[in-house]
Amino acid sequence: MTTSAIELLDVKKRYKNTEALQGVSFSVEQGEFFGLLGPNGAGKSTLINIMGGLVNATSGVVKVMGHDVVRDYRMSRSKIGVVPQELVYDPFFSVWEMLVIQSGYFGLGRENHGWINELLETLKLSDKRDENLHNLSGGMKRRVLIAQALVHRPSVVVLDEPTAGVDVELRRALWEFANRLHSEGHTILLTTHYLEEAESMCDRIAILNKGSCIALDGKDRLIEKSSWRVAVVTDKLAGSEDLFSAALSSAVVSRSRNSTQLRISRDEAAAKNMLQKLSSLGVSDDKIQLREPTLEEIFLTMTADKVIV
Amino acid sequence: MSFNIYGCWTLFKKEVVRFMKVFIQTILAPTVSTMLYLLVFGVVFEDAVVIYGGQSYSSFLIPGLVMMAMTQNAFANSSSSILQSKMNGNIVFVMLAPISVFEFYLAFVMAAIVRGLVVGVGVLLIAALLVDFEVYSIGLILLFAIVSSGVMGAMGVIAGISADKYDHLSAFQNFIILPLTFLSGVFYSIQNLPPFWQEVSSYNPVFYLIDGFRHGFLGVSDVDYQQSVVVALLFFILLSILSIFMLHSGYKMRE
Fold first, then answer.
1. CB contact under 8 A, A78 and B99
2. pTM score
3. Closest residue of B to A57, CA-based?
4. Dihedral angle of Cα A278, A283, A287, A292, to the nearest 10 degrees
5. How many structural domains is chain B composed of?
6. Taking CB atoms and an 8 Å limit, are A105 and B11 in contact across chains?
7. Interacting residues of B193 by C-beta distance below 8 A, sequence separation 6+
8. What is the C-alpha to C-alpha distance for residues A279 and A309, in angstroms, rounded to an integer?
9. Judged by CB atoms within 8 Å, which residues 89-108 of B form the interface with A?
10. How many of the other CB atoms lie within 10 Å of CB of A30?
11. Is residue B254 domain-resident?
């Protein structure tokens, strides 16, 4: 049996008055491109920080490539590269100095300089090599963070919202780079707020909400498993706004000038009931199209505060 | 990897390079301000105070001032570096690496010792141009210089871990380090104090650091230098255990 790249077993983290993680368990297999999604405050960064050894879990077991992050921290840390969410840097050093220092922390000396040069080349940082980190743009700092995370050639790469606040060009470049790392055999764990990107890149997705893992599956399975589809109504809704609100507002996914998108149950009886309501509002059948929900729609429904029926 | 020697060495080197990159602030400024103490106090009290039955006040003052500069700078080095890294967030780079708490402690304390020694040598070199002073035992001078800088480097690690902002560090410096240093016999011999204050001074560990260091220059001191060696080493071990324990617990670092 192959060792999981990341293994989490009943991981809990309690801060003074909050339970940031309430017993999270799942595994990420080697070579996977894994998405970790959740709203702000769901516990994604806490979980990532525990994997990297930045935060101690209150209880539970976390392993990276089979190495316990507490008992066997040297091995686990040498197997994982974490790109932090915040643009942190040491203002005293240049790009090259910082990468050599980071490499040294992992016990790697001059023999690793070739790889550092390769990273600079790949991440288009060669001309910034002697620039102080303080003087770099946000996008460049982000690239340096990625280089720092990869300097010891980790097999598991964790990208904590790498595209937050970066321009379109850099975002595209970062995704190309992440795909390249994945194709070279790295396990990638990604958190992002851009769900369409997670949808297009990730093999499997876990959704965290309020410290619990509320869904974990392949993207297609998550969609198939949802209890509803989307009815796209292109007819102008007849009847008063009040009537519409009373009848359908709890099912609305989104509304624009030309169409209204509604959750419609996969259960036949419930779907029929919904269609009858639409009909009573004057919507003709040929103006209703059914489609599968997107990952974003599923995500928003699962993480919504109100329970949607 | 039982001991990440290269990782520890890299962190130590990084800390030394860090303070050397701002040497005006970290080396030159404390050297100059210490020399001002020597000029002011040395000139004013040179003829007025006679110590240990014949020593000039300047030759008495120099070891105290050098030790004060070394300890204050050793403390400042580890404490401000850790706090600044915590506040900037770049402490994560070390924490993500396979560096143990002992290696972390060792690198920061060693760098603090180097900063203390560099400042101490700087003060001594300039002092040598201005006044004559004796050297009784280089070995004793070096021992106290290293252990005392280590003591304050370890205290700096504790302060850096505990502090959340510079205000906390400033409180540590002004309400603990400075009183302990000023009331430790930098400017006077405790033999000149009333018995009560002599008794109080004997509970100040910094007094032993300065007194033992001074013995290395003058060959005489307020208490037996061997007693000072024991107290200095015990103080160093105690603070080291405390700082390693704090790092190991993850207090304010991995919480």
1. no
2. 0.91
3. B255
4. -10
5. 1
6. yes
7. B201
8. 20
9. 89-90, 92-100
10. 15
11. no
- Residues B45-66 pLDDT 10s: 877 777 777 788 888 999 999 9
3-state secondary structure of A219: helix
CA distances from B180 to A221, A256, B205, B217 (A): 67, 71, 8, 22
Residue A40: CB atoms within 10 Å: 7
Token output for A117: 């040069």
Full pLDDT tens readout for chain A, 309 residues:
789 999 999 999 999 889 999 999 999 999 999 999 999 889 999 999 999 999 999 999 999 999 999 999 999 999 999 999 999 999 999 999 999 999 999 999 999 999 999 999 999 999 999 999 999 999 999 999 999 999 999 999 999 998 877 788 888 888 888 999 999 999 999 998 888 888 889 999 999 999 999 999 998 888 888 888 998 888 766 555 665 676 677 788 877 777 888 888 888 898 888 888 888 877 888 888 888 888 888 888 888 754 443
Domain coverage including residue B85: 5-249
Residue B6 to residue A56, Cβ atoms within 8 A: no
Look up residue A3 and give its DSSP letter.
P
CB atoms within 10 A of CB A278: 24
Closest CA to A21 of A30, A11, A33, A29: A11
Residues 6+ apart with CB under 8 A from B239: B151, B154, B155, B158
Domain assignment of residue B104, yes or no: yes
Cα(A103)–Cα(B96) distance, integer angstroms: 12
Taking alpha carbons only, the member of A153, A115, A92, A100 closest to residue B6 is A100
- Other C-beta atoms closer than 10 Å to the C-beta of B131 total 16
DSSP string over B226-240? HHHHHHHHHHHHHHH
- 3 state DSSP class of A38: coil
H, E, C per residue of A59-105? EEEEEECCEECCCCHHHHHHHEEEECCCCCCCCCCEHHHHHHHHHHH
Angle between the N-to-C axes of helices B101-130 and B5-21, in degrees from 0 to 180, rounded to the nearest 10: 40
Q: Which residues of A touch B (CB under 8 A)?
A: 15, 52-56, 73-75, 77-78, 82, 84, 86, 88-93, 97-98, 101-102, 104-109, 148
Q: How many CB atoms lie within 10 A of CB B24?
A: 8
Contact at 8 Å (CB) between A86 and A122?
Answer: no
Indicate whether B255 belongs to any domain. Answer: no
Q: ipTM value, please give it.
A: 0.93
End-to-end CA separation in angstroms for chain B = 25
Indicate whether B236 belongs to any domain: yes
Cβ–Cβ gap B100/A75 under 8 Å: no
Considering only the beta carbons, identify the residue of A84, A92, A106 that sits closest to B18. Answer: A92
Closest chain B residue to A146, measured at CA:
B93
Q: Is A236 helix (H, G, I), strand (E, B) or coil?
A: coil
Helix axes B57-88, B138-162, angle to 10 degrees: 30
Angle A160-A166-A169 from CA coordinates, rounded to 5° = 120
Cα A262 to Cα A240, A272, A303, B102, distances in angstroms: 17, 14, 17, 59
